[in-house]
Specification:
Length: 245
């Protein structure tokens, strides 16, 4: 594995590795923040990022999407490739992460993409931005998830940043499955909440006011269509959905 880039900031290391087939963004030894298949940068490689796109079953054809935590831009690349005309805002606190993503991870460039260097909570509470159809929260540092992303204040700010029929997606560790404060806050803000234990340590939460039945025939058909469009086995994750509310 060749080291293409090594740097650091006040939050820690930023490393990019390449083995000829995959490119990896890492914040610490043994850590893998993003993995990109060099020949197909739009195809999601990590299980948890694939599961996060179950949100497209609840909010199909979103016009405005926000991603909190850019990383290597995996979600940005997949959404831009799969959804025509979608506008994507990606929020990243670490300027050097943005620089590394632009240099090494083949981010799409165009008027529909905006990458903003700021704190996620500050962004959410800034009312100059129009509300989003889907808000993805994927904020991690070298020691794991940023705990503030699971607080009541952060969840309430997130709910306020999406449209009435919009969807909030949170990637966190599976030890948060028993986080009652998190679940109760989500229950106060959303009509339907599902969780997917990816089996790889991540627990993906999808919270929305748009109700669907994940296991009915129509939903399975839509999941198959999305699987083909995204080039990932999304149907695999529909079978792992568990209702939180």
């Amino acid at each position: 594995m060749e080291a293409l880039y090594k740097d650091s900031d006040s939050f820690g290391e930023i490393n990019v590795f390449d083995d000829g087939k995959y490119r990896i963004l890492s914040f610490a030894e043994g850590d893998e923040q993003s993995r990109m298949q060099i020949a197909a940068p739009h195809v999601l490689q990590h299980d948890y990022t694939q599961a996060m796109l179950l949100s497209l079953l609840f909010t199909p054809q979103p016009k405005r999407v926000c991603i909190l935590g850019l990383g290597g831009g995996s979600l940005l690349n997949a959404l831009y490739h799969a959804i025509p005309k979608v506008n994507i805002a990606a929020i990243e606190l670490r300027e050097k992460v943005i620089d590394a993503a632009n240099r090494f991870f083949k981010l799409p460039i165009g008027k529909r993409i905006e990458i903003i260097n700021t704190d996620a909570l500050l962004f959410l509470t800034d009312h100059k931005y129009r509300k989003f159809d889907i808000l993805f929260t994927d904020i991690y540092q070298s020691n794991g998830i940023d705990e503030k992303a699971l607080t009541q204040h952060f969840i309430e700010a997130s709910a306020g940043a999406i449209k009435e029929q919009g969807t909030l997606v949170i990637n966190c560790w599976d030890d948060q499955i028993n986080n009652q404060t998190l679940v109760e806050t989500l229950n106060e803000k959303f009509q339907q909440i599902i969780g997917v234990d990816t089996g790889s340590g991540n627990w993906v939460i999808v919270a929305t006011n748009s109700r669907i039945e994940p296991n009915n025939k129509q939903t399975k058909l839509e999941a198959t269509k999305l699987s083909n469009k995204l080039e990932i086995p999304l149907t695999k994750w529909t079978s792992k959905i568990k209702y939180i509310k």
